[in-house]
Design goal:
This protein is mainly beta. The protein is 0% helix and 38% strand. It contains no helices and 7 strands. The strands form 2 sheets. Strands 6-5-4-3-7 form a 5-stranded antiparallel sheet, with no helix packed on it. Strand 5 and strand 6 form a beta hairpin. It is elongated, with a radius of gyration of 20 Å.
Length: 85
């Protein structure tokens, strides 16, 4: 799905015929679990089901919830290594 709009902007002391154009593409993604995702704060999570994940980074490591807002995360496509130290 795409959206598009154009509208005149009324800004004092500026050109009033300016146009704003926003083009967005939405793609429905069917997430396959388990998968790695990253939060806006840069923390990496292992999702095992919709909204259900465990944090794999920083001081939050091991934090498990089934109430994460998964739509606030993006896919993590880098590499992560787990070890027992």
């Amino acid at each position: 799905m795409s959206s598009f709009f154009s509208l005149p902007l009324l800004i004092p002391n500026k050109r009033s015929d300016m146009k704003a154009e926003v083009k967005e593409k939405y793609q429905k993604v069917n997430t396959k679990y388990p998968c790695l995702k990253k939060s806006g704060a840069g923390l990496v999570f292992l999702f095992i089901a919709k909204n259900t994940a465990m944090c794999l980074s920083d001081s939050n490591i091991g934090e498990y919830r089934d109430t994460w807002n998964e739509s606030a995360f993006v896919n993590f496509n880098d590499t992560i290594t787990l070890s027992n130290d």
